[in-house]
Amino acid sequence: MSQVIVISQDETRDSYEARLNGTHGKGATLGAALDQLLNQLDDPQTPLLLVRQNCPDHFFTQKNFERLQELQGKAKSSLESLSPMETTELRDLIAQEFRATIQRSDALVAQAA
């Protein structure tokens, strides 16, 4: 199964780019960018599309989102390192965020059906 990457081009306005194996599609919405990408492919397949948000929602809470950002920032800093307990917490939050991504994607599929 192919993996499509969709990124926001500009945080101030709706502009997205979908990428797959060197092919690009752009659009004002995530769906438009994905449609443009898939229309360029000789043999369009159904891609795996995971929807990750860079903000909290009902799948991944504000508290968890803020703590994840805090721990990731600390892990990237050369001044501080994570304690073993924080490392475990960071791994758990990443797993929770991944489950939230799957739930978010499932909800979009259910809405489309």
Write the layout of secondary structure elements.
Layout: E1 5-8, E2 16-20, E3 23-27, H1 30-40, H2 62-76, H3 84-112
Antiparallel strand pairs: 1-2, 2-3
Helix pairs in contact: 2-3
Features:
3 helices; 3-stranded antiparallel β-sheet; 113 residues; 3 strands; alpha+beta; 49% helix
Low-confidence segments: none
Strand content: 5-15%
* Element order: H for helix, E for strand: EEEHHH
For the biggest β-sheet, the strand order reads: 1-2-3
Tell me the total number of β-strands.
3
Strand-pairing-aware structural class: alpha+beta
Residue-averaged pLDDT: 79
Query: Major beta sheet, specifics?
Result: 3 strands, antiparallel
Shape: elongated
Q: What is the overall number of helices?
A: 3
Proportion of residues in helical segments: 40-55%
From the alpha-carbon coordinates, what is the Rg to the nearest angstrom? 17 Å
Please, what is the oligomeric state?
Answer: single chain
User: Alpha-carbon distance between the termini?
Assistant: 21 Å
